[in-house]
Design a protein that fits this description.
The chain is mainly beta and 870 residues long. The chain contains six helices and 50 strands. The strands form seven sheets. It has a 24-stranded antiparallel beta barrel. The longest helix has 19 residues, at 2-20. The termini are far apart.
Length: 870
């Protein structure tokens, strides 16, 4: 409580400074550009030799944005914007006195590599949303969507064309953007926001047509203006993308003798984008196939918490900003829940083999999004996944088991912007409805889950200052068995014997909770600071459709940040931040109390250095014993450093290292990593990185043992090694034609010593916290790989050897050809091998040999899609 009072006092002082400290920025006068209508369209080849480019006005006078905000750029840049009824055309001349140093690097779409230019349009003219179209000097396209203050969504993809050309005086870019790919309000004459920028890679320099300072609090509202657009087509259009695919699935040395090694399948589906109006779009997908999507990174999770993986599926990536009701790392709408691994896994007996699907089938999804002219934003999404089945095989034949019910997922978000988007309020509503028509489904799945929230945001003093409040609630209903499991899950652990503020009720058929957060601070200028206070009640749960790492939490956080905007001496850029975070449960247990420091520096030679350090005070882990009492963990401190070389070189590298040490038991952790990025030629990229971790964890939970009327919570000191390596090789014949390889071996081994059981979990006296088993109190049977422990009351119990060696290798080989705008042909080979043994293999060589001797799983796929509009 003492630290809470200190933080509240500091936060009160911070609030007073926030209200009294004025914003210090000169008025940024908006530049204006008037476009010109043409009758004959140019041929998009990057040469700018069509007659139409003699019309209109060239404009320049760019200003440097980085490293020296407001300074003169090292090279001149000129732009021209033309249009006709269907398209807007952009020409950009990038003058360069050293054209042989222009970096023309071919890379994946939506990845910035080498020199680049771009243009963004605030076509709604709402000063918060913009659509950006960029092209590298090598001709690769990059499109993204701006939303909010400084947020960007690189997953937004449009159908447009661009080309570049190299000349003695520099390089040029020619861009053609269909009005159908933009969203705008009705009306004959248009006023749009416009932003044009250029990146010179060898100098790591960015310049703007309309300067947006480095320390700006937001971005789109500072755009210049584009005038002169009138009498253009409506953006309403129907775009269709049907696909067909053929898969060949090979299971190698099949462990299941009742099914074959080879499986084939034909599949087909349809993606559609329908322009409901000029500013509303309906996206839909029927039977989507994401076989070309890169696999998740390997992981062996030994913690008490769920891992959150990034979304990689295109349909769920695009437009997700409209559902941005998030609080830090918690997600109100976590799209990976849709089409995830089936939630029920049946037990098998000796002599039985299972054949289970890896994910539930998405029957279809639809998404409606857009905004009105008066600032109302709407996002609605609905997805349906099918009832999922698996098979259990034995000598008696095969039987079908149900793994997942037919399920409907709905997410809705509505926001209203007022006062030039300085006042924003909104609502969010999500639901999951399951058709639990069998008893096994009723026992393992809840019937309904709903969650909702309201939010309010206020900006003032040129958006430098902000105040945000969010209020949320959740409700889940289901059978007694499903709600009992929910209460015992990692998110709640209501069965904890020491938590008087929690109520564990096995007869309960519903669970309702609330949450809230308040943020206030300064986000503009070189000096930024803020304060946050939030809570999730013990019964709060949105994880049927969202992601919350832990409920029963009260959090307070304060931070202060300083960032340079001009280079000085040997420093090109530097930034420092310090923060303090305190988490506690509703029962008053301090679950986290830390102070962190972070520094980022870029030197004049374009090397970067990052430093992070933190001090963590003693706290309780309320989840580590998986339903047992809260375990007191000692304080620790640590730091890590990363150095990155000049990324503008054909060969660059980075190295990093970190070390953390506990002040109590000899718990320590360190890691060392690094990587290289190499372009031997502009068309070829080779990337290799690795990370090695060494962890001596003194509190590692193993399992709980029921012994008479008592429950023993077993732990040990774990010596764990982890090595993760990732190799990428990419070759580009053109921006549209590429071969990409991704391979990632993962290796994790662990050995357990100093076995102990929890004696007094909350004791500050370390000798009282655990009972350490002496060597004469247990024995190990090497044949059965089982430990037998003798308690002082002559009772005995057994425990399997928890040592492990886990190795996994995942790879993808993809041939991608965009043979027509928006239409793609794929050849894909996905490979995986996994080996998991209850024995520690201290040598990586031995573990890898066993891994590559394990049965492989291979998927070969041909996928063909064809885009057209009507």
């Amino acid at each position: 409580m003492q630290f809470n009072l200190k933080l509240l006092f500091i936060s009160f002082q911070l609030l007073i400074c926030l209200l009294l400290y004025p914003a210090n920025r000169e008025e940024n006068k908006k530049r204006q550009y008037t476009t010109h209508r043409i009758d004959h369209a140019p041929r998009i080849d990057g040469k700018l030799d069509d007659e139409c480019w003699n019309q209109g006005v060239w404009d320049g006078d760019f200003k440097q944005q980085f490293p020296n905000s407001g300074g003169n750029p090292s090279q001149e840049t000129y732009i021209k914007v033309l249009y006709d009824r269907d398209y807007i055309y952009v020409a950009i001349k990038c003058m360069d006195t050293e054209p042989d140093k222009i970096r023309r690097i071919l890379d994946r779409r939506d990845k910035f590599s080498g020199d680049a230019v771009g243009i963004a349009f605030d076509s709604y003219y709402d000063q918060r949303t913009a659509f950006e179209f960029n092209v590298t000097a090598a001709g690769q396209k990059i499109d993204l969507k701006h939303y909010g203050d400084k947020s960007q969504d690189l997953n937004w993809n449009a159908i447009w064309d661009a080309a570049t050309s190299l000349a003695d005086s520099g390089w040029t870019a020619e861009i053609q953007i269909p009005f159908s790919q933009l969203r705008y309000n009705k009306g004959n004459r248009k006023i749009w926001g416009m932003h044009v920028w250029r990146w010179i890679d060898r100098e790591q320099e960015e310049s703007h047509w309309q300067l947006i300072p480095q320390d700006a609090s937001a971005m789109v509202y500072l755009f210049g203006e584009l005038n002169g657009i009138e009498r253009i087509r409506s953006s309403r259009q129907v775009e269709l993308l049907p696909y067909a695919s053929v898969k060949l699935d090979y299971k190698g040395d099949q462990q299941n003798p009742y099914i074959g090694k080879w499986h084939t399948g034909l599949n087909g589906g349809l993606d559609a984008k329908i322009g409901i109006s000029s500013n509303f779009t309906l996206d839909a997908t029927i039977n989507p196939d994401f076989g070309q999507v890169e696999a998740d990174p390997s992981e062996l999770n030994l913690t008490a918490y769920e891992t959150r993986f990034d979304e990689k599926r295109p349909f769920f990536l695009e437009g997700r900003d409209i559902f941005d009701f998030n609080i830090d790392q918690d997600r109100f709408f976590y799209t990976r829940r849709v089409g995830s691994l089936p939630g029920y896994k049946p037990d098998t007996q000796e002599g039985e083999y299972s054949d289970l699907p890896e994910n539930t089938t998405i029957l279809g999804s639809a998404k409606l999004s857009g905004r009105t002219s008066n600032g109302l934003l709407v996002g609605l999404m609905n997805s349906v996944t099918g009832k999922e089945f698996g098979k259990i095989y034995s000598d008696e034949g095969a039987r079908t088991v149900t793994l997942e019910p037919l399920t409907n997922y709905f997410a809705g978000r509505i926001k209203k912007e007022l006062n030039n988007a300085n006042t924003i309020y909104g609502i969010s509503f999500n639901s999951v409805v399951r058709n639990n028509d069998e008893q096994v489904l009723k026992n393992n799945f809840t019937d309904n889950a709903t969650s909702g929230g309201i939010d309010f945001t206020k900006y003032w003093q040129d958006k430098n200052y902000f105040f945000t409040v969010k209020l949320t609630g959740s409700h889940i209903s289901g059978s007694q068995a499903s709600i009992k499991d929910l209460q015992e899950s990692h998110l709640h652990r209501f069965q904890r014997p020491d938590a008087e503020h929690l109520t564990y009720d096995t007869l309960r058929t519903n669970l309702s909770g609330t949450g809230a957060t308040i943020r206030i601070g300064k986000q503009g200028g070189q000096l930024k600071y803020g304060f946050k206070s939030s809570f999730w009640s013990p019964q709060f749960n949105i994880n049927d459709i969202g992601f919350v790492r832990v409920s029963d939490k009260v959090e307070q956080q304060a931070w202060i940040n300083y960032e340079s905007i001009e280079s000085t001496g040997f420093l090109r850029k530097y930034e420092f931040e310090i923060d303090n975070r305190i988490n506690s449960s509703f029962g008053g247990e301090i679950m986290d109390n830390r102070v962190g420091l972070e520094a980022n520096v870029q030197f004049q030679n374009l090397y970067n250095t990052e430093f992070k350090g933190e001090l963590v005070l003693p706290s309780f882990d309320t989840r580590v014993l998986r339903g047992g009492p809260a375990l007191l963990k000692d304080s620790y401190a640590g730091a890590e450093v990363e150095v990155e070389s000049n990324s503008a070189k054909d060969f660059s590298y980075f190295v990093n290292s970190g070390y953390w040490h506990s002040f109590g038991f000899p718990t320590k952790y360190y890691h060392f990593g690094g990587g290289i990025n190499y372009h031997p030629v502009n068309q070829l990229y080779i990337g290799l990185d690795f990370d090695y971790e060494k962890n001596f964890e003194n509190y590692q939970y193993i399992e709980d043992i029921e012994l008479g009327d008592n429950v023993l919570y077993m732990a040990a000191t774990m010596d764990r090694d982890i090595l993760l390596t990732t190799l990428r090789i990419e070759y580009y014949l053109s921006p549209e034609l590429s071969i990409q390889y991704y391979g990632s071996p993962y290796y994790s081994i662990g050995a357990y010593t100093d076995f102990k059981r929890v004696n007094n979990a909350g004791s500050k006296n370390r000798s009282e916290r655990f009972h350490h088993y002496k060597t004469n109190e247990y024995a190990y049977d090497t044949g059965k790989e089982v430990y037998t422990f003798n308690e002082t009351n002559a009772e005995t119990f057994t425990m399997d050897n928890p040592d492990f060696s886990f190795a996994q290798f995942r790879s993808n080989l993809i041939f991608r050809w965009e043979y027509k705008l928006g239409s793609v042909f794929y050849l894909v080979w996905s490979h995986e091998q996994t080996r998991n043994e209850n024995i520690r293999k201290p040598k990586i060589h031995d573990s890898l040999l066993n891994l590559f001797a394990a049965r492989p799983s291979d998927v070969f796929m041909i996928k063909f899609s064809y885009w057209f509009s009507i």
